[in-house]
């Protein structure tokens, strides 16, 4: 993504004057390191109302400023309205294998919530490596994410199989001719359609997939889009795949053409993403409920404020139940087979409950503390 710098710098002089709101470059210290970001406020920002927050993550060897210009999400912020933040990775590379950048994102959200009037609605999108990090955020951030929209990236097999047990609406945009993050997958990265099938399963979708074509209004972009919709998901969740036939490693509708394949111009990805996000905005009076049920256990309520209940739907005895934070620190432990756990002492955020049976089998379940 670094190769687009010259074109975006030229565009910057034009597009920065097109944005009506306020963009501010800032930084915070996290784990002894100064971390930078750009935050954009809508033009009618008022401390008397609250706004959704959108995380917009850049790709490998790119930065917050380039992602701001390339995705043009400020134009969405100006009219939505919402607050959008563009974080900077260290040396242009997101660390989605450890919790270093996860801690940065969590601290950034905390900081923005303390400075601006932000409601409980949090969304994430990203390009390329920023899309990989978006999946990491969806699975492991301490805050509940309303919905995600990765573009031209994917989810590692490790995260998919071992470190993600959540339900969340997903919109994925990907070109079939992407030369950087192959649509067909690579070592340690599943094919895109396998990733979406996995999310369909997590979201309890029926397995039925409907499809429809986006009108091919631009005949010169050498690409077209078919949308695949995984149907009848639980808790009003959605799983959508915008499959860009002939599309490259690009953001549809972006202001410049990158040298990584065709840029589709039948849609503007940022507009599609916000249309998807706003369907999943929750009011303060309608909290997100994601109770967990399997053949073995039922966990409720989720989110929870004080008492977490566990129903055991199996004859296997439970040896112990443990609760961990997003950084892997064990906070609580209960022996035998507790039917309820008082978690009122925990801070608000996301946690993981680990149930171990007497047959040395275990299940890890994510829950949200209000």
What does this structure look like?
It is a single chain. The protein is of the alpha/beta class and 370 residues long. It contains eight helices and 18 strands. It has helices at residues 5-15, 64-71, 73-79, 100-115, 129-140, 157-162, 192-202, 269-278, and strands at 22-30, 33-41, 51-57, 83-87, 118-127, 147-151, 170-175, 209-213, 224-230, 239-245, 292-293, 297-300, 307-312, 318-325, 330-335, 340-342, 349-357, 362-369. The protein has a ten-stranded mixed sheet, sandwiched between helices. The protein is globular. 42% of the residues are buried.
Distance between termini? 38 Å
Strand content: 25-35%
- Uncertain parts: 6-18
- Number of distinct helices: 8
Order of helices and strands: HEEEHHEHEHEHEHEEEHEEEEEEEE
Residue-averaged pLDDT? 87
Rough outline: globular
Q: Helical residue percent?
A: 10-25%
Structural class: alpha/beta
Kindly provide the radius of gyration, computed on alpha-carbon positions and rounded to a whole number of angstroms. 21 Å
Largest sheet: 10 strands, mixed
Instruction: Name the strands of the widest sheet in spatial order.
Output: 1-2-4-3-5-6-7-10-9-8
Q: List how many beta strands DSSP finds.
A: 18
Produce the secondary structure layout.
Blueprint: H1 5-15, E1 22-30, E2 33-41, E3 51-57, H2 64-71, H3 73-79, E4 83-87, H4 100-115, E5 118-127, H5 129-140, E6 147-151, H6 157-162, E7 170-175, H7 192-202, E8 209-213, E9 224-230, E10 239-245, H8 269-278, E11 292-293, E12 297-300, E13 307-312, E14 318-325, E15 330-335, E16 340-342, E17 349-357, E18 362-369
Parallel strand pairs: 3-4, 3-5, 5-6, 6-7, 7-10
Antiparallel strand pairs: 1-2, 2-4, 8-9, 9-10, 11-12, 12-13, 13-16, 14-15, 14-17, 17-18
């Amino acid at each position: 993504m670094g190769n687009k710098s010259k074109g975006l710098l030229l565009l910057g002089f034009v597009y920065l004057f097109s944005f009506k709101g306020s963009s501010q470059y800032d930084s915070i210290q996290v784990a002894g390191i100064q971390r930078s970001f750009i935050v954009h406020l809508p033009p009618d920002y008022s401390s008397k109302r609250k706004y959704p927050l959108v995380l917009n993550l850049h790709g490998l060897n790119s930065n917050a400023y380039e992602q701001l210009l390339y995705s043009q999400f400020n134009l969405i912020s100006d009219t939505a309205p919402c607050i959008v933040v563009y974080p900077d990775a260290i040396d242009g590379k997101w660390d989605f294998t450890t919790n270093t950048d996860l801690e940065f994102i969590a601290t950034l959200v905390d900081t923005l919530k303390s400075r601006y009037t932000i409601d409980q609605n949090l969304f994430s999108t990203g390009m390329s490596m920023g899309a990989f990090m978006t999946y990491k955020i969806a699975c492991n951030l301490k805050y509940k994410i309303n919905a995600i929209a990765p573009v031209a990236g994917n989810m590692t097999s490790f995260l998919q199989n071992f470190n993600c047990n959540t339900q969340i609406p997903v919109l994925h945009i990907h070109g079939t001719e992407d030369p950087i993050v192959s649509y067909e997958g690579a070592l340690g990265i599943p094919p895109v359609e396998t990733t979406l099938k996995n999310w369909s399963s997590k979201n309890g979708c029926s397995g039925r997939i409907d499809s429809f074509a986006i009108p091919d209004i631009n005949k010169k972009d050498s690409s077209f889009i078919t949308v695949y919709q995984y149907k009848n998901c639980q808790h009003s969740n959605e799983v959508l795949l915008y499959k860009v036939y002939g599309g490259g490693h690009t953001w549809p509708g972006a202001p410049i053409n990158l040298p990584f394949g065709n840029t589709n111009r039948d849609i503007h990805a940022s507009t599609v993403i916000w249309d998807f996000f706003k369907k999943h905005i929750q009011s303060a009076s309608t909290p997100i409920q994601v109770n967990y049920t399997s053949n073995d256990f039922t966990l409720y309520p989720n989110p929870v404020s004080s008492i977490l209940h566990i129903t055991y739907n199996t004859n296997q005895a439970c040896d112990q139940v443990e609760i961990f934070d997003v950084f892997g620190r064990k906070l609580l432990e209960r022996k035998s087979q507790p039917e309820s756990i008082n978690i009122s002492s925990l801070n608000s955020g996301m946690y993981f409950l680990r149930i171990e049976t007497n047959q040395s089998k275990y299940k890890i379940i994510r829950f949200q503390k209000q």
